[in-house]
Amino acid sequence: MNALTYDGIDAAWWPYVFILLAGWLPTDVWRWLGVLSAGRLDERSPAVALARTIATSLVAAVIGRLVLVPGGSLEAIPLPIRIAALATGFAAYFWLGRQTLVAILFAEVVLLGVPWALGMF
What average pLDDT does this structure show over 7-34? Predict the structure, then answer.
């Protein structure tokens, strides 16, 4: 065994153990600590407001990156359609009762429906 890297062990089971140890376990520990401590935190405290702000900004940054600099098959959809899908999802979220699933569905309809209607797929 050279090291505990992805290619460090030549066994069929090793990639799965590596994903478990390097990906899932460190993330899940913080999730469980959050669940255990959430009941003790004041929802209006500055620390919770800061954590919520950071989490929201990270989600916004990921969405912005997916829209403006996509990779994979999303690259085939033109930028104006991706922006229209984002705007439609945002509008649906606010106008239809702040339901995330509804907003995602509206954005998906624009993201996939417009290129399909234009014969791009």
Answer: 84
